[in-house]
């Protein structure tokens, strides 16, 4: 009767399994990691998009009509927004 347990008897089948299926195990490990990362990112996106909907309030304000009229009536040669000459035209 054998009463002693050898470590090599336990490690050999495990090493043989890892040697045979190391590529499959690597692929499954990487795929599982990518799946977990994608699920975490999706949950972060959902949380941030839900909080945006709640805080989306219209800005209540009015334009300064007097300033707009002065800008429209201005006759100086200062460049106005949208009225600047293009540097690419000869």
Structure overview:
The chain has 90 residues and is mainly alpha-helical. The protein has helices at residues 7-54, 65-73. The longest helix is centred in the middle third of the chain and has 48 residues, at 7-54.
Secondary-structure blueprint:
Blueprint: H1 7-54, H2 65-73
Q: Can you give keywords for this protein?
A:
90 residues
Helix content: 55-70%
Strand pairing plus helix content: what structural class? mainly alpha
Taking pLDDT < 50 over at least 5 consecutive residues as the criterion, the unreliable ranges are none
> SSE string, helix = H, strand = E?
HH
Quick overview:
The protein has helices at 7-54, 65-73. With 90 residues, it is an all-alpha fold. The longest helix is centred in the middle third of the chain and has 48 residues, at 7-54.
């Amino acid at each position: 009767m054998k009463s002693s347990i050898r470590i090599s008897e336990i490690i050999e089948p495990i090493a043989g399994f890892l040697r045979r299926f190391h590529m499959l195990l690597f692929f499954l490990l990487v795929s599982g990691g990518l799946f977990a990362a994608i699920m975490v990112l999706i949950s972060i996106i959902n949380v941030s998009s839900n909080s945006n909907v709640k805080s989306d309030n219209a800005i209540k304000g009015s334009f300064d009509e007097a300033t707009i009229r002065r800008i429209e009536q201005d006759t100086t040669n200062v460049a106005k927004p949208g009225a600047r000459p293009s540097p690419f035209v000869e």
